[in-house]
Amino acid sequence: MKKTAKYRLRQAGAKRGTARSIKENGAGIKDDDAGIEAFTSAMTDLLANASGPWAAELTNAFTQLDFTPTGIDPDLGPDSIGRYLEGCIQSLPQGKSPDNALADFARNVARQLSWYQIFDGGGVDPGLERGMLAGQIVGTRGLYNVDRPNASTTDPDLYAGNLYAGNLYAGLFLLAPGIYYPLHQHPALEVYAVLSGNLTIHHGRSKPAMVIGPGQISITPPWQVHSLTTGDHPCLVAYAWTGDLTGENWWWQQDEEGQWWRHCWERQASSAWAPGRTEKLTPEEMHRAGDPDIEA
Ligand SMILES: [Fe+2]
Q1: CA 16 to centroid of ligand 1, rounded, Å
Q2: What residues contact 109, with CB distance under 8 A and at least 6 apart?
Q3: pLDDT of 4-23, one tens digit each?
Q4: Domains of the chain, first to last
Q5: How far is the CA of 69 from the centre of ligand 1 (A)?
Q6: What separation in Å is there between the alpha carbon of 243 and the centre of ligand 1?
Q7: CA distances from 73 to 26, 69, 141, 166, 194 (A)
Q8: Are residues 189 and 220 in contact, defined by beta-carbon separation less than 8 angstroms?
Q9: From ligand 1's centre to the CA of 116, what distance in Å?
Q10: Which of 2, 148, 152, 274 is 20 to 30 Å from the Cα of 177, by its Cα?
Q11: CB 48 within 8 A of CB 13
Q12: How far is the CA of 3 from the centre of ligand 1 (A)?
């Protein structure tokens, strides 16, 4: 792993403008506005308007970490990037203001990321597979990774398979029009901040849908089952995962006899999800997922 510099950020949202410059930081970034401080500051400012313990935990994740530039090369490879990313960038709000900080950051950084299909390698409808792409900002294939305190340079968890991302995955998430990302759950705490387009989020099946647009966020607690839907336009989102980053993403599915199952997708070294094991959903798991009214 390339280590050219290290930056310790604390209370980034409260200290905007006072932290040191991160120009020429080894991650190929030439503009301060495209650096990790701009991202953490914008995200913590958005989270300041949210309430509850999960918002506090996410804020903590953004402000208590060591970030290390990874030196990745940009990759705009997948077709959907060419089709949708430029349009999303053009639709971002213009003008310098605190409300536009995250959009400004996304505009500066979006073409510098290594974009990939989050589901890759079969097992998913091809339209869905091609229509969900991520460009990590923080993560094992991001502009920055997170150092684990006291990690040894020979630690197999840190380097073997390049799977370890410290305490945070974060980046941009691009969804094509007409996407339905079915009910799924994961141990990580998740935040989405919409930058362009609209995103419909269901937490379970019984609660009303939540539609979020530019400048709005959703926070999904650990294990909460949820689905995502886009409409006639693509949607560009800033996302973050923190807490338990075990690389499992469980999709829920009901069979013809009404029985509910969950299928595990496992995070690969590439950060994409690949199919794994399947198990019957128990009432206890449904309860943990915040959707206990589904009959087994
Ligand atoms: Fe999720």
Answers
A1: 29
A2: 29, 34, 39, 137, 143, 172
A3: 344 444 333 333 333 333 33
A4: 28-288 (2.60.120.10)
A5: 26
A6: 13
A7: 11, 12, 9, 21, 25
A8: yes
A9: 17
A10: 274
A11: yes
A12: 30
